[in-house]
């Protein structure tokens, strides 16, 4: 089977999920072509697993100091370029088209009337999951940004809905953690302001990752450029993570039993809903603004949650091999029966 797989590359979460899916799709013998959009081609890193992927400009959301700007998003979009990319993408030679919320692939498939499968967290939002309020504009974006024929939604809990657990690597748990080591990943925030908020806590070692590296003159704050391997090493043995409320990183942190402090992007419905779900499930703490007082309270928290998720990428790949039968409630229940939630004393 030949598969065309489009991935939204604005954030790193979609790419992380695609890496796990790529491994299982290749192992199953599928011929897969990947396409990435949402950021300039020179801003992608550690992409070797995708075997000569395609790149198009696509669409992305504009953010400024931790807030999504819909006005800037519209003004900086290039609709003529987007339409040209959609028309230029020939999907005639593919048996299945998959979109992880990637609009060029989704709209090209829609125009060409191809069999389209959506896999990702965004497709869970068509179901009744925790959120703080109804936002008509955000709901329209969710519906029309990357439309698909069938969507497989992912979330940390089923909420009695037909959704699956996250697609993440399932590594062994660390044999020990560094009790004062904290990973900080707030790519949409002013990094100098983040460093300022971390300054008072000299008993902790902060490992800060950002798209544009900044300098730190403080021994307890280490600034790093984005690196998949380096980030994973630091995440593996840290005690917790301070991040925006992206889905994939929180999923990895839960799998490893890390405590979480999440600051959702303002006006970004998905991240606001993710923060609500973390609080609802008791899986992490959230903050609307970054302040030393909130950070201090979280640093002294000695409890976390470890959620053991099965290999959902393999579950989905096997389901595709079986012809994508209807996901009956029994199938969903069997998958969630394999999820184990355990308290962690730090």
Automatic annotation (TrEMBL):
<dbReference type="Pfam" id="PF13528">
    <property type="entry name" value="Glyco_trans_1_3"/>
</dbReference>
<keyword id="KW-0328">Glycosyltransferase</keyword>
<dbReference type="GO" id="GO:0016757">
    <property type="term" value="F:glycosyltransferase activity"/>
</dbReference>
<keyword id="KW-0808">Transferase</keyword>
<dbReference type="InterPro" id="IPR005262">
    <property type="entry name" value="MJ1255-like"/>
</dbReference>
<protein>
    <submittedName>
        <fullName>MJ1255/VC2487 family glycosyltransferase</fullName>
        <ecNumber>2.4.-.-</ecNumber>
    </submittedName>
</protein>
